[in-house]
Amino acid sequence: MKQIFIVLLLCTGAAAEALPEWFKGNTHTHTDLSDGDSGPDAVVEWYRAHGYHFVVITDHNRTADVRTLNARHGSNGGFLVIAGNEVTCRSEGKPVHLTALNVRGRLRSWSYRTRLETLRENITRIRRSGASPVICHPNDNWALNISILERVRSCRLIEIWNQHPEVNNTGGGGMPGTEALWDSLLTRGMRLYGVACDDMHHMREFSPEKANPGRGWVQVWCERLTPGEITTALERGDFYSSTGVVLRDIRYDGKTLRVSVRTGGPLRHTVEYIGANGRVLRKTHTPESEYRMNGNERYTRVRVTDSNGRRAWTQPVFPGSPDAQPYVR
User: Fold this and answer.
1) Considering 30, 41, 67, 268, which has the largest number of Cβ atoms within 10 A of its Cβ?
2) Do the Cβ atoms of 197 and 31 come closer than 8 Å?
3) Exposed, middle or buried: residue 307 (CB in 10 Å: 0-12, 13-18, 19+)?
4) What strand order describes the sheet that includes 256-261?
5) Closest CA to 138 of 103, 173, 101, 185
């Protein structure tokens, strides 16, 4: 009997142990509690019905009651609504916005004399509340340039692709795009992970001029679909961002970065391994590829572009860094 009991305990423990998996989610979502055109229930239901595992409701300076939304739309661990807030400020005539993920209490926005001070102070307040800050759409009205961003050291997440049609993702007129800003910050030694999101405002009309759902998201690698595990994995860099490309796997063993792309139909993919100053270290067109570090890279990340222009971005790894690295299995 004792032997049978021990076997049962071992089997039960093995069955209960969670294994990491990819969870798809949107981190920047508006409802009619602020300036969205649809109610929270309709917004949450759209994401649940379209294969997302989680959505963060981030209305401007307001936190939705996600307990009610989870009671209505949660699906036994298969879908989750996370409390968020777009901390919305203005300084020097420019917008300074941060999304707070996994909000657990009341948050206020505080505007200061300079954009830098406004950014720093609100990041500090978000962290003190127990939430995770994300720097939003830095090129919105060209508000957050490199000289400001390089002086912010307490935030790990920045939107590198925000699908709102008016935030200048690609840059222009001599101004860098958001991905180029990211590379500049990484080259300066900052550890920042890049987020793609919808910044969803519009569900009643779908057009390129609207901020519609389903255009930008993150795929987070963690064991359980909980607010804490999702936000911890994001801050750790265990995710990739996408506007349509799906990756099967990303692995880094301290020396070699490997990427596997999910393919199908007539689509073709270009895989670029990118290092300091945005320089392409290696380019390939195969779904399975790798880059072996030579020890001189400040960081290495991957951008995958499909033949219709959709992309995925992995997070940077930092060879020789004593800190924890993303994608280590």
Assistant:
1) 30
2) no
3) exposed
4) 247-252, 256-261, 288-292
5) 185
